[in-house]
Write a structure and sequence with these properties.
This protein has 2 domains: about 120 residues, SMI1/KNR4-like, CATH 3.40.1580.10; about 80 residues, TATA-Binding Protein, CATH 3.30.310. It is built from 6 helices and 12 strands. Strands 1, 2, 3, 4, 5 and 6 form a 6-stranded antiparallel beta sheet that branches. A 6-stranded antiparallel beta sheet has the order 8-9-10-11-7-12, with helices on both faces. It is globular, with a radius of gyration of 17 Å.
């Protein structure tokens, strides 16, 4: 399955079908590439073409428009955390269609400190799609602390979308989105979301049967 098909399938699993208006044009992407003298890897190009204009990309963190891309320390920066504390980019000299993504910590006057996310671009974009949904992109969201046993039940019953090295896992089930952040015994948090009140009520009941009680936002 190609990158565009993967993104489309993932989005249409948790939301409405995509249209041509949800993607950027090849010309818009080309202008950004020409300005910086770079070429996007296919995994990121396909995301912009398929999904780059969708409102979900700005629900929490912010996917940059091509005119906003910039290069820092040999990396093309394409996304910003909602408080500009973090950035995400990939090495512009990386080989292949699906490079590793790096997280950059904004040290203000001391520049940006880069760390590998241990995820390639396509997986990163799929995880981030679900993170955007549970952080306000969907109408009904909730969160709670969970135990490692709770997480095991989620892994057994939900479909894993992908993981990031900093301790984030994204899941989907029956059109809903969920992300777990944290590692170890004490620091696990579950964020879950549905597009409608009725969907959220069904989600809440399913999780309650698993011993997980959501606090609706």
């Amino acid at each position: 399955m190609g990158y565009s098909d993967r993104y489309r399938q993932a989005m249409e699993t948790i939301s409405e079908p995509l249209t041509a208006k949800d993607g950027l044009s090849a010309g818009e992407i080309g202008e950004g590439e020409s300005r910086l003298g770079i070429a996007l890897p296919e995994a990121l190009r396909a995301y912009y073409l398929t999904f780059g204009r969708h409102a979900l990309n700005r629900a929490y963190n912010r996917l940059y428009a091509p005119k906003e891309w910039f290069i820092h320390d040999g990396r093309l920066v394409f996304m910003e955390e909602h408080q500009a504390v973090l950035y995400w980019g990939f090495p512009i000299e990386a080989a292949g269609d699906d490079p590793m993504v790096y997280q950059g910590v904004n040290l203000r006057d001391n520049g940006i400190e880069w760390h590998c996310e241990d995820a390639r671009c396509a997986e990163f974009m799929l995880v981030m799609m679900h993170w955007q949904a549970v952080c306000g992109g969907f109408a009904c969201t909730g969160m709670t602390r969970i135990t490692p046993a709770n997480l095991e039940r989620i892994r057994e019953r939900w479909s894993l979308v992908g993981t990031l090295g900093g301790g984030m896992q994204a899941f989907t089930q029956r059109g809903d989105a969920a992300c777990v952040i944290g590692e170890g015994e004490e620091d696990l948090e579950l964020f879950a979301a549905s597009r409608t009140e009725a969907g959220y009520e069904r989600l809440d009941r399913r999780l309650t049967r698993m011993g997980i009680i959501l606090n609706q936002n």
